[in-house]
Specification:
The protein has 513 residues and is an alpha+beta fold. The chain has 8 helices and 33 strands.
Length: 513
């Protein structure tokens, strides 16, 4: 059994070797290379690695020859060539730095970290490309970097995970019987034979049994997908309790989750859906030997050609490389300018609910975020992580089951007569007399900004310090032992998104002090 993304955000889908057919990837001219940077696509043809960036039809730039493995993350590209690990950052032009000269067997790029295996030893470089590698563990069979977490599967079947810096601090997740694993957000999934277990939150949390007879699994956002031995594909969202939705009953050969999208192959036919789990399936292409989802992009290999499209799931394939493809990866384009868009929220969290309602409120929300200087990646990430859990980004949200006139309302779920009075005095509106106004399009966003910056004036400071525990303490809510880790996991995913695909340096604190 294997998870669908053991190690890499832009995972490799290596295909059966296909004969190269002429110069099928034309080189870019110098003028064409001056296009604005967007998402990247890398394609391997034999041992030649090409990449483009920006539009899916952008011209290709040869990166390196003699390549046996490769990875992309943010503006970094890494390749293994005759055992040497080379990494560069920035544009697609030359500029390789040799991380290890001759003995790398596997590697991964993640944020500003580079992890690689050298004769069963895991080494990690953090920061600049020329930083000193730090030995992490010996006798390692497989590993994954994810945010500030590192996981290793050792040759004896034990699974170890740690978080924070590169110093000691392993937590033994399972002592002896793991066959595969994946890290995603604050979740850790691992297989014991054909049984899938997942834990959430703190590294010491108890694992929760998920399913038996599992051939392949994947985590993405709050979703879990399993491909069972009988060919059925099951997916669920939310917590770790039961609640599987059967996407396909018996004939799936491969699948991938990417937030609110699900794609799978069935006898060479590629199908995909987006939105709620019970959304209608949309046929994508026949004769597909490999595929990949990344944001609003879909890529597929058909008869050795690489097809890519961007946008919705309707028609619109572009033939990026017409023949000879033996591997490919996608890297998401950077986020659009502005503060928060619906596309941002979907890219971070997947399915977000009533999109029309959310879009209706975003202009006013962005206006108030600018007013409250909630305008850098850390502040925006903390804010949206909070609003996701408070109101689901719905300006008209109201606390269910509370008959009080001053129950939780609006984006921030303002609660209690004292808070209603304080917001009214600051904003010049009598919310004590008109409490329902807190959950209106006119007032919900100003109230959220007031609570974040005036009622709790150091919330932006906590966000700047990557202290989500401090943010959560300021906001206040029920069941913090369960809720704090979830909000912190949301914060990390949002921060990665708004920070250009990589977490910033520094420790992220999830705990209240």
């Amino acid at each position: 059994m294997s998870s669908t993304s053991r190690s890499r955000t832009g995972m490799s889908l290596l295909l059966a070797a296909l004969a190269l057919v002429g110069p099928v990837v034309p080189a870019a001219t110098a003028a064409e290379r001056d296009r604005p940077t967007g998402g990247r696509i890398a394609v391997l043809q034999g041992d030649r690695l090409y990449a483009n960036e920006g539009d899916i039809a952008a011209p290709w730039v040869l990166q390196e020859e003699g390549v046996s493995d490769y990875d992309l993350f943010g503006d970094r590209i890494g390749v293994v060539k005759a055992g040497a690990l080379l990494v560069k950052e920035g544009d697609l032009e030359p500029g390789w730095h040799t991380v290890n000269p001759d003995s790398v067997t596997d590697f991964q790029l993640e944020d500003d970290r580079i992890g690689y295996l050298d004769h069963g030893e895991l080494w990690v470089v953090e920061g600049a490309l020329d930083a000193e590698p730090v030995l992490q563990e010996r006798d390692v069979r497989a590993f994954q970097l994810h945010g500030d977490r590192i996981g290793v599967l050792k040759n004896d079947g034990s699974l170890l995970v740690k978080e924070g810096d590169l110093g000691p601090g392993w937590e033994v997740i399972n002592p002896d019987s793991v066959t595969d694993f994946q890290l995603s957000g604050d979740r850790i999934a691992f297989a014991e034979g054909a049984e899938l277990w997942v834990k959430e939150g703190d590294l010491s949390a108890d694992p929760v049994f998920q399913e038996r007879d599992v051939r392949k699994f994947q985590l993405s956002g709050d979703r879990i997908g399993v491909l069972k031995a009988d060919g059925s594909l099951l997916v669920k969202g939310g917590d770790l309790e039961p609640g599987w939705f059967t996407v396909n009953t018996a004939s799936v050969t491969d699948f991938q989750l990417d937030y609110d999208r699900i794609a799978f192959t069935e006898s060479g036919s590629l199908w995909a859906k987006e939105g709620p789990l019970d959304a209608e399936l949309v046929h994508q292409e026949d004769g597909v030997s490999a595929f990949l989802l990344a944001g609003d992009r879909v890529a597929a290999v058909k008869d050795g050609a690489l097809l890519v499209k961007a946008g919705d799931l309707g028609p619109g394939w572009h033939t990026a490389a017409p023949a000879g493809v033996t591997g490919f990866r996608l890297v998401l384009p950077p986020r659009a300018s502005g503060l928060v868009s619906l596309a941002d929220l979907k890219a971070i969290f997947g399915y977000v609910g009533d999109e029309r309602l959310i879009e209706e409120g975003l202009p006013k929300l962005n206006e108030e975020m600018r007013e409250g200087r909630i305008d850098n990646p850390a502040r925006i990430a903390a804010f949206v992580a909070t609003l996701r859990r408070e109101s689901g980004f719905r300006y008209n949200a109201q606390e269910a089951g509370n008959p009080s006139n001053y129950r939780g309302r609006g984006y921030i779920q303002l609660t209690g007569v004292a808070n209603y009075r304080g917001a009214g005095e600051h904003l010049g509106h009598d919310f004590v007399a008109t409490p329902d106004d807190v959950a209106t399009l006119e007032w919900s966003a100003p109230v959220a900004r007031y609570y974040w910056t005036v009622a709790r004036p150091n919330t932006n400071d906590y966000a700047d310090a990557l202290d989500m525990g401090g943010v959560s303490k300021n906001i206040g809510y029920a069941n913090p032992a369960q809720e704090d880790p979830r909000r912190c996991a949301d914060f990390k995913e949002a921060l990665r998104h708004f920070n250009g695909g990589a977490l910033p340096p520094g420790h992220i604190n999830c705990n209240r002090r």
